[in-house]
Amino acid sequence: MIHGVTFSNDEDEWVWRWSPNGSFSVSSFYDHLEAARRQDIHDTIQPFPYTLVWSIPIPSKVKFFFWCALLNKIQTREQLTSRGMDVSTECPLCGNFEETTSHLFLVCDTAEFV
Question: Which residues form the Reverse transcriptase zinc-binding domain (predicted)?
Fold first, then answer.
């Protein structure tokens, strides 16, 4: 089993094998997960548009927030209710509709004004 193995005196180091430079990044981790998902389901579902998030030059915390919004994981009142919290789902900004991610970022007149 060890035929062909060579040893060296170099010091061991950690390497993230799913990125070209060996350094861990959230985007390389997501790329790896997305590739595994596509392989598992034989490309039957559209891949997540992660390039929208990870390729734009904005701070990492903004990228993460944008990523959460795209995945509908922002802690809106709708999300809190779906997790068992007893809160009103009414948008606290406009009071007209249920507070969802799409309402908050695309429809709410008060949020648009701000």
Answer: 24-113
Nearest CA-CA partner of 30 in 51, 44, 56: 51
Q: Where are the domains of the chain?
A: 15-57, 72-114
* CA atoms within 13 A of residue 37's CA, in its CB half-sphere: 11
In this predicted model, what pLDDT tens digit does every residue of 41-100 receive, in sequence order? 555 555 566 677 777 888 989 888 888 888 888 888 998 888 898 989 898 888 888 898
Cα–Cα distance for residue pair 54/50, rounded to 1 Å: 6
Backbone angles phi, psi at 18, to 5 degrees: -100, 20
pTM of the model: 0.49
DSSP string of 41-84, one letter each residue: HTT-SPPP-HHHHHTS-S-HHHHHHHHHHHTT-S--HHHHHHTT
